[in-house]
Write a sequence for this structure.
């Protein structure tokens, strides 16, 4: 199994955990947990593959679906304390973002060789599934809240393209991309980093 396959599995599981945590906060049944786990786990990657006209990654490897189901069952039967759910969701989402922005960028770059398209697909892979998760439970998506979110994925994607072009080393590029995205998103969560806005309410949303 390749490094990208392992990271893909890890990203799917972590993002599935965030969906199951959201379902748990909304007091859904086990089926609701599974559906909510699936949305962030495969949503972004599915949209990416459709746009790139590539085979949808999970249709040829059912293990991705079973990982999402396992995450849902885990959270349903062993839920965290109520006060910790949102914190766990935010940090698990940050890990998923760090993994998926690199994987999405790498896949698009190897298919297209275009940096703009690749970075965009990295952001799509990292954020669309979480948006679907949050919309379904009637919450403002994390990508639209004031702390930096999509920007972290964008910078991570740029780091991947720059380092891969220079070093031609996939594992190193994925590592640096993930670290950059996670560090920026983590700082945003801890210190409330946000982009400057104009003409928006003081606490208005920003990417």
């Amino acid at each position: 199994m390749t490094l990208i396959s392992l990271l893909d599995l890890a990203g799917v599981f972590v993002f599935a955990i965030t969906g199951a945590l959201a379902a748990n906060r909304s007091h859904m049944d086990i089926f609701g947990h599974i559906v909510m786990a699936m949305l962030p786990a495969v949503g972004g990657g599915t949209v990416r593959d459709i746009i790139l006209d590539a085979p949808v990654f999970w249709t040829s490897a059912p293990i991705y679906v079973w990982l999402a189901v396992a995450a849902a069952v885990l959270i349903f039967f062993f839920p965290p304390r109520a006060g910790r759910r949102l914190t766990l969701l935010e940090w698990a989402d940050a890990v998923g973002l760090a993994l998926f922005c690199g994987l999405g960028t790498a896949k698009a770059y190897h298919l297209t060789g275009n940096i703009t398209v690749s970075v965009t697909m990295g952001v799509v892979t990292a954020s669309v599934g979480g948006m679907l998760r949050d919309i379904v439970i009637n919450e403002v998506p994390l990508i639209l809240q004031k702390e930096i979110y999509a920007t972290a994925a964008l910078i991570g994607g740029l780091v991947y393209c720059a380092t891969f072009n220079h070093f031609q080393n996939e594992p190193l590029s994925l590592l640096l991309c993930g670290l950059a995205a996670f560090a920026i998103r983590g700082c945003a969560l801890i210190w409330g980093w946000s982009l400057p806005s104009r003409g928006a309410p003081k606490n208005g949303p920003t990417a």
Remarks:
- The two ends are 35 Å apart (CA to CA).
- The chain has a mean pLDDT of 93.
